[in-house]
Design goal:
By secondary structure, this protein is an alpha+beta fold. Helices cover 26% and strands 41% of the residues. It contains 4 helices and 10 strands, in the order αααβββββαβββββ. The strands form 2 sheets. The chain has a 5-stranded antiparallel β-sheet with strand order 1-2-3-4-5, with helices on one face. It has a 5-stranded antiparallel β-sheet with strand order 6-7-8-9-10, with helices on one face. A hairpin with a 2-residue loop joins β6 and β7. It is globular. The two termini are 47 Å apart. About 8% of the residues have low confidence.
């Protein structure tokens, strides 16, 4: 009985000490690769096709919908949103010409085209400066500011500045799978 107790005690003590040991710090994503190399790695992506769920707020009520989006790096896009199986919004942009059904005001068109394009293709940033800040890189030019997490190389937030003086704040959630 005492031998079994002693074995169990030693095993428990080892497990306890191992669980209290400091964890090895994961290397930062940018330690192995430079910022320019990380951004250049995304440059091969020229088109994204996706489906999504959305909640619109209109006149104090919520309208739930599902949609499909095909968007290119140059800003050309097609988006369709369905509610209860019916087409609720259709938006397309080709060479800067934007069409929508139902009609949208110019601010909403700008947010849904330029804002969506810049938030999805965040790495397509030209003539930017880089500043390090608390475990992040701040990439900035006259049109956008992007915070990149040094641990995984992905954005955490972005500000998009429109020509009419408005600002779109975009916040990115943690990826569903974050692998090293």
């Amino acid at each position: 009985m005492s031998k079994n107790f002693l074995k169990l005690f030693c095993i428990s003590l080892l497990l306890f000490l191992a669980s209290c040991a400091p964890k090895a710090k994961a290397p930062l994503f940018f330690d192995e690769r430079g910022l320019a190399e990380v951004i250049a790695g995304f440059s091969g992506i020229s088109r994204i096709d996706t489906t999504f769920s959305v909640v619109f707020e209109k006149a104090g009520s919520e309208i739930h919908g599902d949609g499909v989006l095909n968007i290119s790096c140059n800003g050309d896009m097609e988006m369709k949103v369905y509610t209860l199986g019916f087409l609720a919004l259709e938006l397309s942009s080709r060479n800067g010409a934007v069409k929508s059904a139902p009609g949208l005001d110019s601010n909403k068109k700008t947010i849904l085209t330029q804002g969506l394009r810049d938030s999805i293709f965040w790495w397509d940033l030209k003539d930017f400066t880089v500043r390090e800040k608390d475990g992040f890189y701040l990439l900035r030019n006259t049109e956008r500011e992007i915070m990149l997490d040094k641990r995984n190389g992905l954005p955490t937030s972005q500000k998009i500045y429109f020509s009419n003086g408005k600002v779109l704040n975009v916040y990115y959630d943690k990826p569903a799978r974050e692998e090293g």
